[in-house]
Amino acid sequence: MFETFRNHSGKQLNVHALGIVVSLSGVLVVAPMLPEIIDYFEITSAEAGVSISFMWACNALAQYPGGRYSDRLSSGIVLVVSQSVMIAGFLLLATAVTFPMFVGGLGLIGAGYGMFETAGFVLLGTHFTEKRGRAFGVRDAAVNLGSALSALLAVAVVGTTQWRDAFLPVLVLLGFVTVGSHRLNRRSYSVSRVRLDLVTVGRRLFRSRQTYVVLLVMSVSMFVWQGSASFLPTYLQASKSLTSFEATVAFSFIFVVGMVVTPLAGAVSEFWTPIRTGIVATGFGIVGLALLVVTDSFVGLAAALFAYAVGLTAIWPVMYVYLSEVLSDETLGGDLGALRTVYFAVGSLGPAYVGTMAARFDYSTAFTSLFVCFGLTVGALVWLARR
């Protein structure tokens, strides 16, 4: 994955992708360790879901400023600042002895990763005027690799040491990535006052019905993604009678599939249309969720998780290619950051929703209710395909 591009732009992509792998391995390791964290702090599943939603809400709030600053200053300075904020957050998680400390660390990680992602989009948009689909596919493959490694990290920690120790290797590796980002940066770190200018951005983006429909697709997809990723291991243990180890391996399988699917989806969207590719991906998600709800056999669960993984992961590089085609390169960071603020804010409600539904009913009911989200996504994508 990291040898797709070999020039300076390719090195920028590789280091950024490595930063995503390291960051997300720390962000998402919380999900498979959630039963232990719930027991440690003596909290409910609803409270755990709200704390994760807080992290993604902080992520959403940081998206637009990160993109705006990257447009007006440079992506390099925003990348270094965002990684430093994440390091502070992981340090807080590694030393958390109270639930408020834990929540505070999640908030810092969410804000840092929000800035990091939008700065990365500006970086890739600047360096890849061609092969954007493949570059975004590599980026999303890194997302899935980091997510898969989070499961392996959880396997290494759960039952052998304290859950807080999972964040120590993330701290060290993220420090090395920050140094690498700094060494590859060829622009000066100039700092000046930047107006966020939300009104102008809003007028530019929200003057067409198309923007609202795109936001619907990405908001609902993010809602399903956040809700599923946060509670899938717990759901598999509670409703499918899997052990903690088996549920964690199944969780990692989602992202192993994503590592293969996302570059493929990005490449396919370059010669097929992104929207058609997105419809097919969502169809896989519907089939996967249906199988996940009704089956208990090993083969059935494997097939369900494969199809569900395609639906959850393939939609992202496809929609990023679509947005990079319709948004202006000069304002890509700010515009994408504003859109990401909206759909990440909606998506941040996913863990709170699934956790609350599970506490009030059960995990099977919570996951079954996500069919409504897939129905909305298909309808919106069909509308975009007819334009």
From TrEMBL:
Keywords: Cell membrane, Membrane, Transmembrane, Transmembrane helix, Transport. It holds the Pfam family MFS_1. InterPro entries: MFS, MFS_dom, MFS_Transporters. Its main location: membrane. This is MFS transporter. It is found in: Cell membrane. The chain crosses the membrane at residues 12-34, 46-64, 76-102, 108-129, 141-160, 166-185, 212-236, 248-268, 275-295, 301-323, 335-354, 366-385.
